[in-house]
UniProtKB/TrEMBL annotation:
Gene3D superfamilies: YVTN repeat-like/Quinoprotein amine dehydrogenase. CDD domains: WD40. SUPFAM superfamilies: WD40 repeat-like (SSF50978). WD repeats lie at residues 22-55, 69-110, 111-152, 250-284. It comes from Protea cynaroides. The keyword Repeat applies. Pfam families: WD40. Keywords: Repeat, WD repeat. This is Uncharacterized protein.
Length: 350
């Protein structure tokens, strides 16, 4: 650990020359999400805060301006926007989900409750419902105008990850369960799969065409999984976020909204861009001095936001909030980094 600490102290926190977001959170950053309607970025943090910045472009450079913030009683773990870009939902260790009418300048109100921390939230515009996943081993659907959930779905274990691309929803839980839902029949499991990865699930991402999903784990590996039995031959896993014998967690998976390639962000402090169809890595970025716990593309894919902060993978004893600085950076993806490439032969390169 001494080496790592030294590296963090003297290394360059921004080796990719990204634009730095001003006034970042004062503790580890747990989620990032862009407004679906514009360049407003929300971050949640272990400092109990939910913050929003307006991201502005001036020529070839980007700047940021803090817009508003709201708070929970305990660390905040997840966030999502309503599809109209007016409202933010956030959930966390206070077992609550808050609805924050950010663009109207309103106060956050509690709209959902669980019996344990809330790990994931997603808004489903086609159903006008909020879905929340918790460590209490339930998934709940909410009409935010009503105090009680519309439906409570029991999960086999604690919810660790969630992705929605209607009608597809995939929930990753402890013990490597992946539960697939068809949201046209949201009260029944469509399929339950054991993760193709041998270790704990950290993140999932539905394919843009809803035909399958990605899953990332703590062992520096990603699985590409198709739902249709006739497509099983297209399933594969690949290694990433590794250096020599060091293996790092894959913390985030983000599909590009236009090109449908994807980014992985890891505890090694790197983010990479990939094309699942040609099985190629499009671009490997330089490692930052701390892990990347979360990341997000904006609505048109012209910006990629990523956090650089402690990710708790080495426990609370190795975290010193007084000395660890937290960053949010904005990377401008180049076409060569995010545009898919034609397949090479049959196997492609990894």
């Amino acid at each position: 650990m001494a080496n790592l600490t030294g590296l963090a102290a003297v290394g360059n926190p921004n080796p990719n020359k990204s634009f730095e977001v001003v006034q970042p959170p004062s503790d580890s950053i747990s989620s990032l999400c862009f407004s679906p309607k514009g360049n407003y970025l929300v971050a949640t943090s272990w400092d109990n805060q939910v913050r929003c910045w307006e991201i502005m472009k001036s020529g070839a450079t980007f700047g940021s301006m803090p817009k508003a913030s709201t708070s929970h009683e305990q660390p905040v773990l997840c966030s999502t926007w309503k599809d109209d870009g007016t409202t933010v939902f956030s959930g966390g260790c206070d077992k609550q989900v808050k609805m924050w009418p950010l663009m109207a300048g309103g106060q956050a109100v509690t709209v959902a409750m669980h019996d344990a921390p809330v790990k994931e939230v997603a808004w489903i515009p086609q159903m006008n419902v909020l879905v929340t996943g918790s460590w209490d081993k339930t998934l709940k659907y909410w009409d935010t105008r009503q105090p009680n959930p519309v439906h409570t779905q029991q999960l086999p274990d604690r919810c660790y990850a969630l992705t929605v691309n209607h009608p597809l929803m995939v929930v990753g839980t402890a013990d490597r369960n992946l539960i697939v839902f068809n949201l046209q029949n949201p009260q029944a499991e469509f399929k339950r799969i054991t993760s193709p990865l041998k270790y704990q699930t950290r993140c999932v991402a539905a394919f843009p065409d809803q035909q399958g999903f990605l899953v990332g784990s703590i062992e520096g590996r990603v699985g590409v999984h198709h739902l249709d039995d006739s497509q099983q031959s297209k399933n594969f896993t690949f290694k990433c976020h590794r250096e020599g014998n060091e293996i790092y967690s894959v913390n985030a998976l983000n599909f590009h909204p236009v090109h449908h390639t994807f980014a992985t962000s890891g505890s090694d402090g790197a983010f990479n861009f990939w094309d699942k169809d040609s099985k190629q890595r499009l671009k490997a970025m330089s490692r930052c001095t701390q892990p990347i716990p979360c990341s997000s593309f904006n609505n048109d894919g012209s910006l990629f936001a990523y956090a650089v902060s402690y990710d708790w993978s080495k426990g609370a004893e190795n975290h010193n909030p007084a000395t660890a600085k937290n960053y949010i950076f904005l990377h401008v993806p180049q076409d060569t980094e995010v545009k898919g490439k034609p397949r090479i032969g049959t196997g492609g390169r990894k």
